[in-house]
Amino acid sequence: MGEMSSFQLGVVGALFLSVASSVSIVICNKALMSNLGFPFATTLTSWHLMVTFCTLHAAQRLNFFESKSVDTKTVMLFGILNGVSIGLLNLSLGFNSIGFYQMTKLAIIPFTVLLETLFLNKQFSRKIKFALFLLLVGVGIASVTDLQLNLVGTILSLLAIVTTCVGQILTNTIQKRLNVSSTQLLYQSAPFQAAILFVSGPLVDQFLTKQNVFAFKYSPLVLGFIVLSCLIAVSVNFSTFLVIGKTSPVTYQVLGHLKTCLILGFGYTLLHDPFTERNIIGILIAICGMGLYSFFCTQESKKKQSPDLSLVSQVKDKDTTQLLGHPDKESHEAKKSTKDSVV
After folding, report:
1. Residue 153 CB: number of other CB atoms within 10 A?
2. Measured between alpha carbons, how far is 187 from 69 in angstroms, rounded to an integer?
3. How high is the pLDDT of residue 263?
C-alpha cells in the first residue's frame, strides 16, 4: 500500500509539473512571438532540446541519475520520429487555419485509442470512451472556430497525427519494455530530436514565415525570453516523458486539453484575449469530460488492484499456514504421544 501511495503521489507531481511548465512556456512563447516578433517556432524547439540535453548531461555527470545504454538504432529512430512529428505539426499550422489545426490536435486521442486497441490489445471501456468524447466535444466548442480545408494541409495534418501518436505510444512502450526511466530515455533521445530539428528548423521556419532566423536582429530582451523559454522547456520535456511513462499516451493527451482550457483562461485574464460564451461553455464541458475520465480511470484501476491484493493475501495465508504447521495435525500427534507414554 505504501508503494501504491508513493506511485500515486509521483503521478500527481508529474501531472502538476507538466501543466505548470506547459502553461508557462506558452505564455513565454506567446510574448516572444506575438509581442517581440520572433516567429521561428521550429528552430526554437531545436534549441529547447539542445538545452534539455545539456542540462541532463550535467545532471548525469553530477550523479543525479544513472545513464543506461539503450539500443542505438531504437533511440535514433525514436528521436528522429519525435523530431519529425514536431516539424509536421508546425507545418500543419502553417498550411491550415487555426480551427483545422485544433481539429488535428483533437484527432490525436481517438487515433491513439485506435492504435493501442489494434496493436497493443488495450481495452477501453464505454465509460472511458464517453468521457473522452465529452472532453473532445468541449475542447472543440471552445477552441475550433473555422475549418478551411486544403489538400496539402490535410495530408500534413494526417502525417502529424500518425507520427505524434506513434511517438507517444513508443515513449510509454520503450520505458516499460526496456526498463528505462523517463530521464534516461529523454537523455538518450534528445540529441537526435535536436539534430533533426536543428537542420530542418531554419528551412521550415523560412518557408512558413519568409524570414531567415540567422538574419533576425536579436535584442537583449528577445535573447532573455529565448533563454527563459529554453529553461522552461527542460521542465516541459522532462514532465512529458514522465507523464507518458507513469500513465499512458491517452492520459497525456487529456492533460494536454486541460492545458488548452487553462491557456484560454490565462489568455483572457492576463493578455485580455477575446472570450465568448461559446468558450466558457466549451471549457465547462471539457472540464466535465476530464473529471469523468479521471473518475472512471480511478475506478477501473481500483478494480484491477483488488484481485491482485486478494491473491497476495491468499499467498501470505498459505505461507503462514505452512510455516506454523497444521494445528489439528499437531494436536492429534500430541494426544497420541501422551496416550503412548501413559501406556
Report:
1. 20
2. 10
3. 72
